[in-house]
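Memo to structure team: turn this sequence into structure tokens by end of day. - J.P.
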Amino acid sequence: MRCVHSLGAHPPLRSLESPLSRHERPSLADQTTELLRELIRNECVNDGTADSGHELRTVRTLQAFFEGSGLTGVVVEPHPERASLIVRIEGTDPTAPSLALVGHTDVVPVERAGWERDPFAAEIVDGFLWGRGAIDMLNLTAAYAVVTREIARGSFRPRGDLVFAAVADEESGSTYGVEWLTENRLDLIDADYVLTESGGAPAGRQPGIGVMVGEKGSAARVLRVSGNPGHGSAPWGRRNAAVVAAEAVRRVAQFSTPTVITPQWRAYAAELDLDDAVRAQLVDPSEFFDALPVLGDLAGFAHASTHTTISPNVVRAGGKINVIPGEATIALDIRILPGVSADDVDGYLREALGDLMDGITIEGDQFGPSSISSTDTPLFDVLRGAVRRAYPSAELLPMLGVGGTDGRFYRRRGVPSYASGCSASAGTTGCSAPCSTGTTSASTSSLSTSP
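Reply from structure team:
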């Protein structure tokens, strides 16, 4: 660890808000919007390397935001500029349950050609804020910070502790974020209950408001392909590792793991505004794929919710145009359903590759099981009540997230962790599928819903 220090350890920073009376302050929604724009502009892009991310920028922004609130906090920096900020408001009753609001501050890289606007300018156009991270999950991180500061400034004190954690490195496995904190400073982030990304998407006409009660696990693998190198001018008869890798990618991409109808998917499908026949197909493994063409943008989420997915995302081979490569590698992003083991994953790969396995080695043993929290908790009841105050006809819809969140580190220790937020207005169809991975080209956040 590089350093651990209090909020006051850095030089004074410009406050994001002048000291006004409570009645003169901007609304919570306006405060959230302005802070969200600051977070987007910090451009904390995590490309998976140790020296990317630069989350210290956002830690500094949040330090300025909390100035004058009376809060103290702790900054941890396991690697230069990979910093997280943790603030705790002590409750009035040491025996009461505590709640952690966990929001990450890093974002995934962008392909600017896929954006209509500058992904880091945080422009507001026609009521939408454009920016990388606007829905994953800087919107919630900003809202968490605003609520925490509001409580600190007011007279209300919760019975149990309230923890706000703005954490680094979620987009690349949390090595410098919650994983590091769990292993080295659990005292800072520990709580009895957790809220994090990425629920809130409506489904159906009632509507059902999605709450991610769990998420799929992960089991990354690398396929190492052996070939027969030679000069590019005479390719005949050579085992070109790049050609073999291309066929391996094709086979893996076309391979289908078993269709599994989880309790969460069954409940979600029942809420969708679809013909009865289509809804029936979505929960029948033998007819599931027949329903996908009519789902539109929801098809990808539907497939990922019911299958262990294998995505070949990074392929490398060769280094010179006139040399036939003797080796190639294929990095696989594998997301596993509950009950799938590491042996199952390797078995899927061997089945998919078939006779190609003679020249391919499966490497890596990374395995993080799927995690699910019970809904039979006081926090889930509180969430239900909060949703019904805003939307009396709405029901909470427990869902299994198809991406990864920091909630898994809590669930694996037996701490209930839910993803709850506002992805779209519950009075509209909104997003057809939960925006859980932040990989859409143009991430926008509607400004019509208060935090």
